[in-house]
Structures are given as C-alpha cells and as structure tokens.
Amino acid sequence: MPTVDKASYRNRGGLLQRLISAYKGRRFFTKVGANLVVKATAEFRVVGHAVLEVGDNVTIQDYSFFQLTMPEPKVFIGNNTVIGRRNIITAKNHISIGNDVLIGSDVQIIDHGHGMQRDIPIRLQKADIGFVEIGNDVWIGAGAKILMNVKIGNGAVIGANSVVLTDIPEYAIAVGSPAKVVKYRE
What we know:
The protein has 186 residues and is mostly beta strands. The protein has one helix spanning 6-28, and strands at residues 31-32, 37-38, 43-46, 51-54, 59-60, 65-68, 74-77, 82-83, 88-91, 94-97, 102-103, 108-110, 112-114, 127-129, 131-134, 139-140, 145-146, 150-152, 157-158, 163-164, 172-175, 180-184. The protein has 1 helix and 22 strands.
C-alpha cells in the first residue's frame, strides 16, 4: 500500500483553499485585503451594484450566506475579523463590522425588516430599511441575532442566542432576548 505524504496533502489542501478564496474574492467582493479566506461552501447572492469590502486577514467560515439586495447594499468588514459558520448577513442598505471582531456560528445580521401595517398583507408591504454598525474588538456569541438600526460599541460582548434590538454601549456585556447589558468588561 502506498504511503501518503501528509505535508504534500496539506499543501494541496492549502492551495485549493487559496484558489477558492481568490476566485470568490474576485467574483463577489468590490475590495479585498490581504489573506482573505473564504471557505468553499460560503454562498453569496449579490446585486450588480452592491459594495462588499473586507480588510486584511478576514476569514469567512463554511456555509456562511451573504445576501446583498436592492436598493443600495453595502457591507464593510474590517481587519482580522472572523465570520463564523452558518452566519447570515443580509443587507439592503448598510452593515459595517469593525476590526478584530469574532462572530460565532449561526449568527444573523440584518439591516432591514418587514412593514407591519395592519390592513395590508405583510408580503405586499415595502421593507423597513436601516443599518447595523458593529465596532472594533467585539465578540458575538453563537446564535445571536443583530437586527436593524443597532450600533454595537467597541469592545462589547453579545451573549450566545441574544437578540439585539437596541444599541449596546462600548465594553458592555449584553445577553438575552431582547439583549440587555448585565455588566461591563473590566
């Protein structure tokens, strides 16, 4: 039975990952920093005029889904940021994610919602469109939901499965549904 050279096998895997990242970087992003890693199963649905920019050393994990749709979608991701597995980022207007941000698995970040007038079916109503701003050095736990018109300050921590409906101050630790500040980082 032939022996497997593990170093050679790893190098081929590394080459394939670099090729996938380069292809997706050119295909879907308007600006790409150095060392972008986009896993093969990450999916992008992007209108032609969308803006999707990432800084240096950004990683987008498996099964993440980016949907940038009408009217004017813009997503900015800073340096040294990790988008976890199965994240969903949906923009109709503006989402910014700072530097050194760690986003756990199964997180959703959405800058819009549905209209909810009483006498018109929801499916026929125009979307309410807002924004999401996530500062630097933020940690967002697995399963969290970040909804429209929210600013998360620098250094904040969002607990797992939290639903963020209001602004979170700098260095705050927020948990729950809806997310509430329980203490601050020391």
